[in-house]
Design goal:
This protein is an alpha+beta fold. The protein contains one helix and three strands, in the order αβββ. Strands 1-2-3 form a three-stranded antiparallel beta sheet, covered by helices on one side.
């Protein structure tokens, strides 16, 4: 959000580096890990405190990772 366009591995590293700078505290707990063939679904609960606002937030989200040829 508001960070611009990123390309490739270095771009992803830059994006997450900028993202984490926005938080004074940032941690997560994996609440579910599901094997779905070539996919793994991961549920997470995130706890964070905004650097400039001091607001504490908790949110959940899911991610899906796809593995092909064992990678």
């Amino acid at each position: 959000p508001g960070f611009g366009v990123f390309h490739g591995f270095d771009g992803i590293r830059d994006l997450f580096g900028r993202w984490i700078e926005e938080w004074d505290h940032y941690s997560w707990i994996h609440t579910n890990l599901s094997d779905a063939g070539e996919h793994v679904v991961l549920d997470s609960e995130i706890h964070a405190t905004g650097t400039s606002s001091g607001v504490e937030v908790v949110w959940t989200h899911s991610q899906t990772y796809t593995f092909r040829a064992g990678k």
